[in-house]
């Protein structure tokens, strides 16, 4: 162990057991309520933001089902409403405030309704103050670091009938063995690390999610083996910066090593992961992707900008040339790999020439898809203090130009798939159909095709016959 290495710890078993006791207490209370009102007690969780939040919401669902709550799909039918929030961009926050305002009426008609709000937004002091002042109908406020304490907080809210606010700063530990109730059976999110140490100058995530904390190999492997036993075929390993996995653990396990370990789990057919940071995408990881047959041919590698000057100001710690070099290396080691990326348009100080560099990277890298964002000022981040903010109209024009180029490239890449036979993991019926099934290729492309119920959860070969904007249409070869 190197000097000064910070080691991630686990929340004590005793503390976890305590939460299970609260789950049981609430369950008994709910049984009383259910028999007196003659119908189930119901909850709805509305999740904003990234897959980490989706996974956290699955944990909340697990706790709630243990407490005897049933999930429902309408706010008006709910006895408990939870908003799991995101603050990565301003519009994400505005959305939450809009929804929160709309709950006031509901609470007036149903005073027993409990409203809880959690997630990244709550890790900002001014947000909590604003909610306290403006949205008095909120009953429970908690953050990302004490999610596992939700049973206790809910119990306090139920017994005291007063507002409960509990938000922690990062603790450096991880809560294991709490219940989880997943949305899907065939695919599952598996969080392998929490937090981020990168401090990109525009980004709020390190402030609201705390420092990097890795889960132990043992815990991750147990979870994945259990998933496989329950019929799961595909896992997506989650972390803000998965390449740093293991740096805070005893021993020398890396993310590449983790992939090699999980590749051995029987029953799992596919492994994906996100997100990788280009600055530490190691050769070791590229070789692990190449060697592990379950690791899919897809890499999400956010570039954020094309100009080396802007990348430097973003504190990304790579240049345009280094990024393009990295992509070449990935493509030559893993033929046919699909690349996706994130791009921010209108970072403070971005000139027309800088933006043209972004277009140049997009043209050269030939991403399968890009998630594009208008730069959004986040209070507390260094970039927010930069006086050279870009006017909205300029940002929007650049955004449209970027989209036009990327859409053209995406279409060209997808057109190249016409007539090809691709392996698809069948997920189920597509939304509005009784005979069309949907699934994804190893490259993460959505494919729709005529199928049958017995195909769900299986790998099938589909011949691509038509290219649509967001998906491919194909036919099963019999
Ligand atoms: N850890 C991941 C993803 C973090 S958030 C990564 O490093 O890629 C997802 C994306 O949101 C980022 O990749 C970035 O493109 C975008 N983003 C983050 N902060 C932003 C901001 N202030 N304005 C606009 N987009 C932002
Ligand atoms: Fe934000 Fe950068 Fe961390 Fe991603 S790597 S979460 S963009 S600070
Ligand atoms: Fe948003 Fe938090 Fe994810 S800020 S993007 S939900 S880590």
From TrEMBL:
Keyword Ribosomal protein applies: no
Catalysed reactions, as listed in the record: N(6)-dimethylallyladenosine(37) in tRNA + (sulfur carrier)-SH + AH2 + 2 S-adenosyl-L-methionine = 2-methylsulfanyl-N(6)-dimethylallyladenosine(37) in tRNA + (sulfur carrier)-H + 5'-deoxyadenosine + L-methionine + A + S-adenosyl-L-homocysteine + 2 H(+)
EC number: 2.8.4.3
Keywords: 4Fe-4S, Cytoplasm, Iron, Iron-sulfur, Metal-binding, S-adenosyl-L-methionine, Transferase, tRNA processing
Top-tier EC class: transferase
Binding sites annotated in the UniProt record for [4Fe-4S] cluster 1: 50, 86, 120
Domain of life: Bacteria
Cofactor: [4Fe-4S] cluster
Binding site for [4Fe-4S] cluster 2: 196, 200, 203
Domain TRAM: start-end pairs: 415-478
Domain MTTase N-terminal: 41-159
Cofactor binding note from Swiss-Prot or TrEMBL: Binds 2 [4Fe-4S] clusters. One cluster is coordinated with 3 cysteines and an exchangeable S-adenosyl-L-methionine.
Pfam families from the UniProt entry: Radical_SAM, TRAM, UPF0004
Keyword Signal in record: no
An example Gene Ontology molecular-function term: 4 iron, 4 sulfur cluster binding
InterPro entries named in the record: Elp3/MiaA/NifB-like_rSAM, Methylthiotransferase, Methylthiotransferase_CS, Methylthiotransferase_N, Methylthiotransferase_N_sf, MiaB_methiolase, rSAM, rSAM_horseshoe
Cellular component GO terms, alphabetical: cytosol
Subcellular location(s) of the protein: Cytoplasm
Domain Radical SAM core: 182-412
NCBIfam families per record: miaB-methiolase (TIGR01574), MiaB/RimO family radical SAM methylthiotransferase (TIGR00089)
UniProt record similarity statement: Belongs to the methylthiotransferase family. MiaB subfamily.
Quaternary data: Monomer.
Function of the molecule: Catalyzes the methylthiolation of N6-(dimethylallyl)adenosine (i(6)A), leading to the formation of 2-methylthio-N6-(dimethylallyl)adenosine (ms(2)i(6)A) at position 37 in tRNAs that read codons beginning with uridine.
This protein's name: tRNA-2-methylthio-N(6)-dimethylallyladenosine synthase
Protein source organism: Ruminiclostridium cellulolyticum (strain ATCC 35319 / DSM 5812 / JCM 6584 / H10)
């Amino acid at each position: 162990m190197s000097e000064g290495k910070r080691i991630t710890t686990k929340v004590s078993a005793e503390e976890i057991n305590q939460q299970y006791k609260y789950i049981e207490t609430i369950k008994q209370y709910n049984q009383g309520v259910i028999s007196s009102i003659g119908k189930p007690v119901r909850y709805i969780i509305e999740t904003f933001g990234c897959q980490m939040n989706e996974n956290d919401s699955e944990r909340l669902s697990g706790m709630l089902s243990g407490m005897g709550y049933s999930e429902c799909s309408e706010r008006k039918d709910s006895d408990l409403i939870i908003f799991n929030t995101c603050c990565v961009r301003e519009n994400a926050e505005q959305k939450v405030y809009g929804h929160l305002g709309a709950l006031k009426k509901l609470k007036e008609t149903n005073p027993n309704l409990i409203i809880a709000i959690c997630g990244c937004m709550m890790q900002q002091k001014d947000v909590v103050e604003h909610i306290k002042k403006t949205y008095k109908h909120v009953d429970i406020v908690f953050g990302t670091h004490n999610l596992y304490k939700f049973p206790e907080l809910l119990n306090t809210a139920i017994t005291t009938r007063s507002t409960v606010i509990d938000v922690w700063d990062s603790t450096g530990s991880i809560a294991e063995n709490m219940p989880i109730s997943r949305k899907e059976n065939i695919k599952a999110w598996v969080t392998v690390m929490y937090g981020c140490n990168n401090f990109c100058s525009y980004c709020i995530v390190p402030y609201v999610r705390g420092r990097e904390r890795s889960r132990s190999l043992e815990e991750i492997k147990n979870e994945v083996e259990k998933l496989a036993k329950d019929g799961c075929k595909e896992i997506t390993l989650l972390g803000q910066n998965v390449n740093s996995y293991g740096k805070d653990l005893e021993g020398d396990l890396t993310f590449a090593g983790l992939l090699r370990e999980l590749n051995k789990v029987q029953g799992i057919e596919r492994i994906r992961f996100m997100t990788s940071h280009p600055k530490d995408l190691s050769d070791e990881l590229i070789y692990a992707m190449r060697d592990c047959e379950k690791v899919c041919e897809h890499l999400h590698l956010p570039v954020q900008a094309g100009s080396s000057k802007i990348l430097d100001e973003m504190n990304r710690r790579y240049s345009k040339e280094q990024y393009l070099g990295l992509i070449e290396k990935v493509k030559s080691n893993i033929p046919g790999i699909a690349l996706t990326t994130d791009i921010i348009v209108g970072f403070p100080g971005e000139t027309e020439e800088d933006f043209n560099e972004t277009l140049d990277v997009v043209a050269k890298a030939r991403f399968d898809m890009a998630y594009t964002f208008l730069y959004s000022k986040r209070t507390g981040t260094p970039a927010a203090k930069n006086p050279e903010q870009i006017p909205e109209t300029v940002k929007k024009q650049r955004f449209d130009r970027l989209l036009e180029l990327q859409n053209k490239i995406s279409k060209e890449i997808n057109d190249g798939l016409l007539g090809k036979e691709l392996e698809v993991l069948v997920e189920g019926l597509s939304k509005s159909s009784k005979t069309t099934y949907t699934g994804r290729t190893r490259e993460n492309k959505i494919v729709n095709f005529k199928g049958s119920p017995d195909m769900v959860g299986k790998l099938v070969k589909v011949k691509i016959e038509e290219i649509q904007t967001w998906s491919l249409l194909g036919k099963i070869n019999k």
